[in-house]
Structures are given as structure tokens and as C-alpha cells.
Design a protein that fits this description.
Helix 5 packs parallel to helix 8. About 9% of the residues have low confidence. Strand 13, helix 5 and strand 14 form a beta-alpha-beta unit. This protein is α+β, with helices and mostly antiparallel strands and 376 residues long. It starts with a helix and ends with a helix. The strands form 3 sheets. Strands 1, 2, 3, 4, 5, 6, 7, 8, 9 and 10 form a 10-stranded antiparallel β-sheet that branches. A 5-stranded mixed β-sheet has the order 15-14-13-16-17. Strands 11-12 form a two-stranded antiparallel ribbon. The chain is built from 8 helices and 17 strands.
Length: 376
């Protein structure tokens, strides 16, 4: 082997070592895949303040971050109005000023408590719909703690507000929120104004109202955990099994929950004296009639004193078509004591509690849960 051949061989070896080293560094660095807890395929679910028909919140947790299929229904959209505070400017110091005057929001619920420290929110941004025109102008990113919602990220006038300085960094269609590692089971993105908001005056006092359209393509939430080899079935097993019960209906016939395994079951505890409860059971009536042939069962459990005779007239006048049962102490205890009414549990086909709510939920929120479970 002559000198030139030796040089070529040595150079080749050096190139291989450099390329391999770069690959190893890349694999160890920030590009390593972290588990996205906000994916529906990872057990996450989502609810929204409202949405435009054709732009469901479910599309914001399906893993698609591109805006190219916006016109085909990819991404969440919500039109809303917001009253401007009477004081000059938008007060960042008084949360009431931000929340009480109107907003649109997305709430992502994980399938269990997670340790998170970063969220990436993708808003509408394409050549046809650029973010500077159709993106977000004012918003909060919040995480749930035991004492309530905590804001850990803020967009003000189209710029990211630093949590540790007065710096402002303009944002486009990708917003990255970083914060201290926190254990939580849900996060929320609240939009106050979009870049294409319009202002109009109303009433004799000239009160100004901003009309906005919130547009979010995808929400990602990550922590310190890398993508693992866990299967969906293993994640499913983390959900709590719904306690079985057998209760009498209005005709004194006994109905057992486990009879409906294989179906999506919504169980709601309610009382006739609670206006929110009566709204809930009526709301569920229309959902039941629409989805009963697709695998949905609804069970309304009355906690009214006086038994069946006390509520029969209300049930008949309301036209409720699903079974209404009479609660006993044992069943209420199994489901946490039922401190608030209505309290509603969404149970999947395997008999596990998929979601629970301790207040009135509108049709659009419960319908999202139903569609998600029926489609699986």
C-alpha cells in the first residue's frame, strides 16, 4: 500500500468516526423523542369552551401539527366575543380582568397524573393563512394544581412574555411554553384575542367588544419521560374500574351497571331540586337518543329524598327516555360521596372511568367523549 492509498484509508476512517459521533450526539440531545401526553393515542382527551362546526377540538390532539389541511377540518376553531375592561389597557395584574370579559379555551386531560415542563401550541400558520393575520394575539397557558389553575405562560400583543424578565419575543404559528417540572393531570390554553380581532361599540355607553376567532392546530405537552414501549392497552389499564351497582328504576325493576359492559355508559347523579342537574339530564336525553344505536347507554341516578314517586312527574314531563334509577347510600359512597350535583361519569366499553365531571357539562363536551370512545 503506497503513501497516497494510506492517506485515503485514514481519511475514510476519520469521516466514519465523525459521522458516527455526530449521530450519537444527535440521539442524546434535544431531538430525542419525549412522550407527548396530549396525544389522544396516549390516552388524552380534550374539551373546549365551544367550537365551529367542522373544526372539532379532537383534531388538536391527533398529532398533526401542519396547517396545510385547515380547510379540510384539521384544527380547532372557536368564534367568541370579549368585552374590553373599563380601565385603560389590558391589565396583566388582575386575572379577573382577563377571564371575566370573555375568552375561548381548550382543556387537555391526561389519562393519569404526569410530570411536565414544556408545552408547544401550534396555531394556524400557512401561506394561505399566515400567523401574523390569523394567529393568536393574547393568551395564557395554564396547568392545574390542587388549588386551581396556574398561569405558566403568556402571550401579550403577539409576543411571548418572559416569566423572569421584561423581555418580549414575537411568536408565529408555534408557541413554546417552558416552566418548572410540575405534576398535573390537565392543562389549559386560554385565548383572549386573535390577530384578526375586530372591535365594535355597543349600547348607549359605547362599551367596546372585541370579536375574535381562536385557531389551534395542535397542542403538545411533554416532560422528562422518553417515548416508551408501553402499549395502549397498558395505558388503558391505568384507568379506574367503575364500581358496579344494582339500583331500582321508576318501575321498581333492578338495573345493574355491569350489564352494559361493551357499551359507552354515562352515569349522572342528579336531583330535581338542582337546576344544573335538571339541565344535565335533559341534555343527556338528546345525546342518548342520537347515540343509543351506536353503543351509548345513559343512566340517571336520582339522589332525591322520597324515591320514585317524587320524581316521576318531572321525568315524564321532560320526556326522558333513558333509565332513571334511585340512589342508595352504598352507591353514592362508591362514587366518592357525590358532594356536588350534577356529578357525571363517562365509562368506557371495558367498564373503566374515562372521564368524570362535578358540574354541568354542555352537549358539545360530552359528545366529544362519546365520539372518541365509540370510534376506538
Amino acid at each position: 500500500m503506497n503513501y497516497s492509498t494510506k492517506l485515503i484509508a485514514l481519511f475514510s476512517i476519520i469521516c466514519v468516526v465523525i459521522i458516527s459521533g455526530c449521530a450519537m450526539i444527535g440521539n442524546l440531545g434535544g431531538d430525542a423523542k419525549l412522550a407527548n401526553y396530549a396525544l389522544a393515542s396516549n390516552g388524552a382527551s380534550i374539551s373546549a369552551s365551544d367550537y365551529t362546526r367542522g373544526h372539532s377540538p379532537l383534531t388538536a390532539i391527533n398529532g398533526i401539527t401542519s396547517s396545510e389541511k385547515w380547510d379540510e377540518g384539521e384544527g380547532w376553531e372557536c368564534k367568541f366575543e370579549r368585552k374590553q375592561p373599563k380601565t385603560d389597557g389590558w391589565s396583566r395584574l388582575d386575572p379577573r380582568n382577563m377571564l371575566d370579559y370573555g375568552s375561548a379555551w381548550l382543556e387537555v386531560q391526561f389519562n393519569t397524573e404526569r410530570l411536565i415542563n414544556k408545552s408547544t401550541v401550534y396555531t394556524l400558520d400557512s401561506s394561505q393563512y399566515p400567523a401574523f393575520q390569523y394567529g393568536i394575539k393574547d393568551a395564557w397557558f395554564q396547568i392545574w394544581k390542587e388549588y386551581g389553575w396556574t398561569t405558566v405562560g403568556e402571550i401579550e400583543n403577539g409576543a411571548m412574555v418572559s416569566q423572569i424578565s421584561k423581555d418580549r419575543e414575537p411568536v408565529g404559528g408555534k408557541m413554546v411554553f417552558k416552566f418548572e417540572p410540575t405534576r398535573t393531570d390537565k392543562v389549559r390554553f386560554v385565548v383572549f384575542r386573535s390577530n384578526d380581532f375586530e372591535t365594535r361599540s355597543t349600547g348607549s355607553n359605547g362599551r367596546k367588544i372585541d370579536k375574535s376567532v381562536a385557531r389551534v392546530v395542535e397542542i403538545q405537552v411533554t416532560g422528562l419521560e422518553s417515548v416508551s414501549s408501553k402499549t395502549g392497552a397498558e395505558d388503558e389499564n391505568q384507568l379506574e374500574t367503575a364500581p358496579d351497582f344494582s339500583l331500582p328504576n321508576l318501575d321498581d325493576e333492578w338495573v345493574r351497571l355491569s350489564t352494559f359492559q361493551g357499551q359507552v355508559v354515562i352515569v349522572t347523579f342528579w336531583a330535581q331540586w338542582s337546576s344544573e342537574s335538571t339541565r344535565q339530564v335533559r341534555e343527556l336525553n338528546s345525546l342518548y337518543q342520537e347515540y343509543k344505536d351506536k353503543g351509548l347507554m345513559v343512566l340517571g341516578i336520582s339522589v332525591d329524598e322520597g324515591g320514585a314517586e317524587r320524581i316521576k312527574t318531572f321525568v315524564q314531563n321532560s320526556g326522558l327516555r333513558y333509565p332513571i334509577l334511585i340512589a342508595n347510600t352504598s352507591t353514592k359512597t362508591k362514587y366518592g360521596g357525590i358532594g356536588k350535583l350534577p356529578t357525571t361519569f363517562v365509562i368506557n366499553q371495558e367498564g373503566r372511568i374515562y372521564k368524570s365531571y362535578d358540574s354541568f357539562q354542555g352537549r358539545h363536551i360530552l359528545e366529544l367523549d362519546i365520539k372518541k370512545l365509540i370510534s376506538e
